[in-house]
Amino acid sequence: MTNKLAPIIAPSILSADFARLGEEVKNVLDAGADWIHFDVMDNHFVPNLTIGPLVCEAIRPYAKKNGSDVCIDAHLMIAPVDRIIPDFAKAGANLISFHPEASTHIDRTLGLIRDNGCQTGLVFNPATPLHFLDYVLDKIDLVLLMSVNPGFGGQQFIPSTIQKIQQTKAILQAHQEKTGRQIRLEVDGGVNVKNIAQIYAAGADTFVAGSAIFSQPDYAKVISEMRAQLATAI
Ligand code: DX5
Ligand code: ZN
Q1: How remote is the CA of residue 46 from the centroid of ligand 1, in Å?
Q2: If you measure from the C-alpha of residue 176 to the centroid of ligand 1, how many angstroms do you get, rounded to a whole number?
Q3: What CATH number is attached to the domain comprising 192?
Q4: For the whole model, what pTM was predicted?
């Protein structure tokens, strides 16, 4: 049995105009985006510094479609990670992802996210092995594969990620066959109109795109081109 979840496009606001962030969030959702990807960096786990719970709370009222909240997908590139998880939950994040290297107790961190009412994501850097999934699949709602080294927008997609997507998809498929539960597979870094179909065909269903969307004047045009590409993939 194949399981193709409906594709999700999650623009990364890292490449948005920070001086007009609420408006950017609204505009990109009006342009057809599904989620808002929220990149949190601490200048420690990654060599850059971005935004935290206060900004998440500030954009929460703008992250809506037809009056309903859309998912704020918080990607935490911070270490240690546990202390600040409840703050992101209170600030309105719906899904919280973290890197296994940033947690001393991965199982405990996943439990903490769920106890705070959010969905969980585990993030894999390009060189991070997939074995961190082995004993925690039942506690994971989304696997996030980095297709660049984290820290900056606008980098090139690393081609070997395609094989890693296929390997991850096989693990998630086997888990679904055993348990009936579907886990999303998200890819982050260097995703654009040209490569999104290949990434989808490899098994991903959730696509983060920062510079590919926010560097263009017409967000709706890019997002509809991405959807047209997805429609061409198997
Ligand atoms: C990188 C971030 C990504 C990044 C994506 O550390 O996690 O979300 O902003 O940006 P693009 O799509 O420009 O590679
Ligand atoms: Zn990200």
Answers
A1: 12
A2: 28
A3: 3.20.20.70
A4: 0.98
